[in-house]
Design brief:
It is built from 23 helices and no strands. It is mostly helical and 475 residues long. Belongs to the NhaD Na(+)/H(+) (TC 2.A.62) antiporter family.
């Protein structure tokens, strides 16, 4: 297969992902086994990209593809007398995945716990009840998305703010579409300057290419990426007043303390990585212990807490409070674990294992040679962001980490920025966009987002220019 044709296949169908630069690769790219592995991955990822239309969870095709690819690799390397190499490669990929999976699992568990304690419901009810007009809500939901996503991740943040928009938007589909686009851009931009804001930033941090504090260098470029399209779109948002819906939501016991424990968990993970030079996941798993002990405390003290609240409600003849007490359930950490985004975690596994196999067969060496040797690294990293919009930023960032090009700190920051915010160019380019198309089905659509792509691209280009200017000393 000619080199250019192979490169086009790799770019547009993205068998670009993560294995490890430390593992050897073999030139099996022009063998029957290589072609078969590429065909399997392309087929599987085509089904992933059509998830919205097929209603087929994205984890299913990549899990199957991962198994088939490694079966082919196993037989191929066995014939070559290199079975041990294949075994070491698959074990290494499993280790890489397990670190990220456990990290994400703990973060998702904390977010689920906050949701169960009604923290997000309280925020939503407050926003809805304040009587803001559509344009004010456009800005408030966008700005909140930008500042919540670095902590709570862009997907959770987008879904929370979308719920607010849907509640107040009613039948004003124009406002809902614009507000959802704004939320996607803001959540992706906010997630770009924090290791906890997106899976791609987490991968870069865990790989050791950027220390925790250096992600903050992307704060101003991320602000620019959000503000430019937001200011233009805001001019098209009506200043009408939506119907105000008053809803009383009471925080469940321990909600604020769980937020504190999450912050402590993040600090623990950063400490393990920064001071002890251990993987951050060790600190996150220790943080899960914080939550488990707190859950134990809430369960043990629940009867006394209920008795105290019941006495207070009876003394004040508060029938509504008495009714709410009847619906109180004990806090269960393991139920929160079960509510994690398992489809995302399993999709993550499938992608890592698929492209770990393709890397072992030599495909990523070809892409690395073209993008980071023949091209200027800055243009290569700009292209990474564009590919993120077409394919998904997770496999594209995996590709870059797998290639492990010799980049300056400025370029590592650049690729982190472009992979994070590039997905905003299309609604299918990020988890936040895909999720909102489902949550606001028929109101926020692919073509509704596509119409504003030139404006979003303006913000994308401006954020890159600002980064190149502000952080020039790092290149």
């Amino acid at each position: 297969m000619p080199l250019k044709l192979l490169f086009l296949l790799l770019v547009f169908f993205s068998p670009l992902t993560f294995a490890s630069s430390a593992m050897p690769s073999f030139d099996l790219t022009q063998t029957t086994a290589g072609y078969l592995c590429i065909a399997i991955f392309v087929s599987a990822y085509s089904l992933v990209m059509a998830e919205e239309y097929l209603q087929l969870r994205k984890s299913k095709p990549v899990l199957l593809a991962a198994g088939l690819i490694w079966i082919i690799i196993g037989f191929t390397f066995s014939k070559m007398g290199e079975s041990e190499v294949a075994q070491r490669a698959i074990e290494h990929n499993l280790l890489e995945y397990s670190e990220l999976m456990l990290f994400l699992l703990v973060a998702m568990t904390f977010i689920s716990a906050m949701e169960e304690r009604r923290l997000f419901d309280v925020l939503k009810a407050w926003l809805v009840s304040k009587g803001f007009d559509f344009r004010s809500l456009f800005w408030i939901t966008g700005i909140l998305s930008f500042f919540i996503s670095p902590i709570a991740d862009n997907l959770t943040t987008a879904l929370l703010m979308c719920a607010v928009v849907l509640k107040v938007g009613g039948k004003n589909y124009r406002f809902i579409n614009l507000a959802c686009i704004n939320i996607v851009i803001a959540a992706n931009a906010g997630g770009a300057f924090s290791p906890f804001g997106d899976i791609t930033t987490l991968m870069v941090w865990q790989a050791g290419h950027l220390p925790f504090k250096d992600f903050l260098l992307l704060f101003i470029p991320s602000v620019v990426n959000y503000l430019i399209p937001a200011m233009i779109m805001a001019m098209f948002v009506p200043k009408e007043q939506p119907e105000v819906v008053h809803e009383y939501v009471e925080l469940k016991r321990g909600a604020k303390r769980i937020v504190g424990l999450f912050i402590l968990t993040i600090a623990t993970a950063v400490g393990f990585h920064g001071f002890l030079h251990f993987p951050p996941v060790i600190g996150m798993m220790m943080g899960l212990a914080y939550l488990q002990f707190f859950g134990f405390f809430l369960r043990k003290t629940l009867p006394a807490s209920l008795a105290k609240k019941r006495a207070r409600a009876e003394a004040h003849h508060d029938t509504a409070a008495l009714k709410r007490l009847g619906s109180v359930v004990p806090f269960d950490v393991f139920r929160r674990v079960s509510h994690a985004e398992w489809d995302t975690l399993l999709f993550f596994y499938g992608v890592v294992m698929c492209v770990g196999g393709l890397s072992l067969m030599g495909y990523l060496s070809i892409v690395s040679e073209i993008m980071y040797t023949q091209w200027d690294p800055i243009w290569a990293n700009v292209m990474v962001g564009i590919l993120s919009a077409i394919v998904d930023n997770i496999p594209v960032m995996f590709a870059v980490l797998t290639m492990n090009p010799d980049l300056s700190m400025g370029n590592w920051l650049l690729v982190t920025l472009t992979a994070g915010v590039g997905g905003s160019l299309l609604s299918i380019g990020s988890a936040a966009g895909v999720a909102l198309m489902g949550a606001a089905h028929g109101k926020y659509t692919f073509f509704g987002h596509l119409k504003w792509m030139p404006v979003i691209a303006l913000g994308y280009a401006a954020s890159i220019a600002v980064h190149l200017w502000l952080n020039a000393i790092y290149f």
